[in-house]
Write a structure and sequence with these properties.
Layout (H helix, E strand, L loop, with lengths): L5 H9 L22 H15 L4 E2 L6 H4 L4 E3 L9 E4 L19 H17 L5 E6 L1 H9 L2 H8 L1 H25 L3 E6 L9 H18 L8 E4 L6 H4 L6 E4 L8 H4 L6 E6 L4 H21 L4 E5 L9 H18 L1
Helix pairs in contact: 2-4, 4-7, 5-7, 6-7, 7-8, 11-12
Length: 334
């Protein structure tokens, strides 16, 4: 089979056809440096040029969506490079009223799409780029931290009013990302978990607004990915979202890839345990996980990826082992 470029490989995978090899996409944070648009652009380009992944998940700091409303954030040394909220905006129920409309072309929101535009210009369309977008309920949790759960149950109208504003801002950000050169979005929800909310609660405060966003960009993207973060995710509730790709911690929580295939018709993204195997497993363990992911899916409609962002300590040797294993899986299938 002739070697494909990134787009042909992805497009064949989306159609459910065998490509020249199973596609690979890995992503990581660049802590502290990611707060500067120029540095984020440079590091993103270096990352993609070094590894030639088949899909580039753009990696803004995970707190960009709350800073323009006044939240204070910091990098506190998390292994995955993520920032934390040190001073939330919503401390009392009445603070939800502070969530007023903002312009996503400005401030922290605007900086992310400026960096994406610079990255896209340099890559010249050679690789699919997805901008990272957080669900409105995920943003609400970062604005209020754990207070969100009490207010959902005791003051739902206050939360709904804030979610209306957040949703509209998020839609504007998505449309700006597409104009900046994104080929789709990586839509991350961190609350679609049975450990955090009931199904009815997520349907009202989560899915309702999620689908508004996905509907607003319908027909304007070449591929969108849904990421469900955490344990005991509401996979069945999410499996009808209008996205082409679905990513979750398949090595750490149900369902595995084989069972997920029964519910989601699109491309599954996963197969790797980034917390253990990529850090401590060695080449043999990494090869086994890639081969097992291919076995579970028949090698179709699969992109090899992590359950979430890579630890910043992930070695070059581990990343190379993933790429080598993907080539090996293709050779064995042939």
């Amino acid at each position: 089979m002739n070697t494909m470029n990134h787009w042909r490989r992805l497009e064949a995978t989306l159609r459910g056809e065998f490509a020249d090899r199973v596609p690979v996409a890995l992503w990581r944070h660049f802590p502290v440096d990611d707060m500067d648009a120029g540095k984020l652009t440079r590091l993103t380009l270096e990352w993609q040029q070094k590894w030639q992944f088949d899909l580039l998940k753009f990696m803004p700091p995970g707190t960009y969506g709350v800073e323009d409303w006044g939240a204070k954030t910091a990098y506190a040394g998390a292994a995955n490079g993520a920032r934390i909220v040190t001073e939330p905006v919503v401390r009392r129920t009445e603070d939800w009223e502070r969530i007023r409309p903002i312009d996503p072309r400005l401030g922290a929101y605007g900086q992310q799409n400026f960096a994406l535009a610079q990255t896209a210009r340099n890559l010249g369309g050679a690789v699919p780029i997805l901008q990272t977008v957080f669900s409105p309920l995920t943003t609400a949790r970062k604005l209020a931290t754990e207070r969100l759960f009490a207010d959902i149950r005791c003051h739902p109208e206050a939360v709904d009013a804030a979610l209306r504003v957040i949703t509209d801002v998020t839609i504007g950000f998505c449309l700006e990302a597409i104009r900046a050169g994104a080929h789709g979005i990586f839509f991350a929800t961190q609350l679609a978990s049975h450990r955090l909310l009931t199904t009815a609660e997520y349907e009202r405060f989560g899915k309702k607004y999620d689908l508004e966003i996905l509907d607003a960009i319908r027909g304007q993207c070449r591929a969108n990915m849904l990421h469900a973060h955490g344990d005991d995710i509401m996979f069945n509730l999410l499996s009808d979202y209008p996205v082409e790709l679905f990513n979750w911690h398949d090595r750490l929580t149900d369902p595995d890839l084989r069972r997920a295939r029964r519910h989601f018709p699109g491309v599954l993204v996963g197969g790797l345990n980034e917390h253990h195997t990529l850090l401590h497993g060695g080449r043999g363990a990494i090869t086994h996980e890639v081969q097992d992911a291919c076995a579970q899916t028949g090698g179709r409609k699969l992109i090899i990826g992590p359950g979430c962002v890579l630890p910043v300590a992930t070695s070059d040797a581990s990343i190379q082992a993933v790429l080598d294993a993907a080539q090996l899986a293709e050779a064995q299938a042939a």
